[in-house]
Amino acid sequence: MRQAHPAHGTLVAFALAALLGACGAPDSDLPEAPEADEAVEAEEAAPTYAILNPDEMAELMERDDYLVVNVHIPYEGEIPGTHLDIPYDEIEAYLDQLPEDPDVGLLLYCMSGGMSIMAAEELSERGFTNLHHLDGGMRAWAVEGRSLENADEWLEDWLEAN
Length: 162
Prior knowledge:
Blueprint: H1 6-23, H2 36-45, E1 50-52, H3 54-61, E2 66-70, E3 84-85, E4 105-109, H4 114-125, E5 131-134, H5 137-143, H6 153-161
Parallel strand pairs: 1-5, 2-3, 2-4, 4-5
């Protein structure tokens, strides 16, 4: 039977003592937690919008209290039932086409989701509160077998391949 060298036990005890001692060390190097008011301000400043899958989007589109907005540029087609085409990077120029009531539901989409996220963030910063973005955009919509109107040829080719 092999015996442990006496120095090994001393090393283990020393390492354990150092580790436990560090647990009680002052936290001077750790960042301080934000004050409650700062956390609330950060939460209030964060844009808010719901993320929808194609089934959820279709369900909300059946209601008459939502406005469907295509924010993709350049225009490459749209989901049937779209009410407005507003370029995601020109929201301010098209505010007069949106409802004055910031609580009206807006269903935003683009080709793959990135532009509609930016549009949702912009609209949230402008006070709109009932925002929804189609995750995956028109591509996700069409991959699930839903139709598109006026789709560009490249999109049709992409859909056939996927």
